[in-house]
Design goal:
9% helix, 237 residues, 9-stranded parallel β-sheet
């Protein structure tokens, strides 16, 4: 397996900043870079710009932010900067975007979803009622409804990943999921902290995964469905 970004992300042109990856080669460096990059891009120049369209009540905007043209923001959206949101995105009602998040062009965040310190390449989508924390979504990647990207181990030590028998420290106790280009997390699935999922891999609903999942796989648990006779009971009002 690999933690090199060119295994997971081949469409760097679907990212708004051409210089972002000049000194970044490992997946875990992307989230580290997002913090310093947004500080220099938005905080030091004190940027507070919303070029998007607000539909309904005005969003709750805190800190520094940039929101591009064509982006639609619905009711009860909260954005806590520093946050960069590109063009033609969609933030559905109740979405919460937390600091150090970069959302590229053509992305969407669903109703009631929380996005914390994430990097989203162009065309990636997060469905409703999701917690996406400390994660990277490749171009056109998908996170289905109800997914939790577990982003911290119970003992609060740094997230790790085994590469060639060697355990790599990912440099932070908060680390969610690396989701390669056009990969998918099905509804109510849970990747454990530090999980790396290759491009074009589908993790089916209700599946718990960890470690390294290679490219172009279908991942699911075997399930046995039990069907028995049931008594007829009129339910109380």
């Amino acid at each position: 397996m690999s933690t090199k970004i060119d295994y997971y992300f081949l469409k760097l042109d679907r990212f708004p900043f051409t210089d972002f990856f000049e000194d970044v080669t490992e997946t875990y460096e992307i989230l580290q870079k997002a913090k310093t990059y947004l500080n220099e891009l938005l905080v030091k120049p004190d940027v507070k710009e919303n070029h998007g369209e607000v539909r309904g009540d005005a969003p709750n905007l805190h800190g520094n932010y940039y929101i591009g043209e064509g982006t639609v923001i619905y009711n009860d959206v909260t954005i806590i900067g520093p946050v960069y949101i590109g063009k033609n995105c969609e933030l559905l009602p109740g979405a919460l975007i937390r600091p150090n998040t970069i959302i590229s062009d053509g992305c969407s965040v669903g109703h009631g979803s929380e996005v914390k310190h994430c990097v989203m390449f162009g065309g990636s989508k997060i469905a409703s009622l999701v917690f996406a924390g400390d994660s990277v979504l490749g171009a056109s990647a998908r996170i289905g409804s109800g997914v939790i990207t577990a982003n911290r181990k119970f003992n609060q030590t740094n997230a790790t990943l085994k590469v060639g028998g060697e355990k790599i420290d990912l440099g932070d106790s908060f680390f969610g999921c690396i989701l390669g280009d056009s990969s998918r997390l099905g509804a109510n699935s849970v990747p454990q902290p530090g999980t790396h999922i290759g491009p074009h891999t589908w993790v089916y609903p209700l599946t718990n995964v960890r470690g390294f999942i290679p490219a172009c796989k279908r991942v699911y648990h075997e399930h046995k469905t039990v069907m028995e006779e049931n008594e007829i009971v009129e339910l109380k009002p």
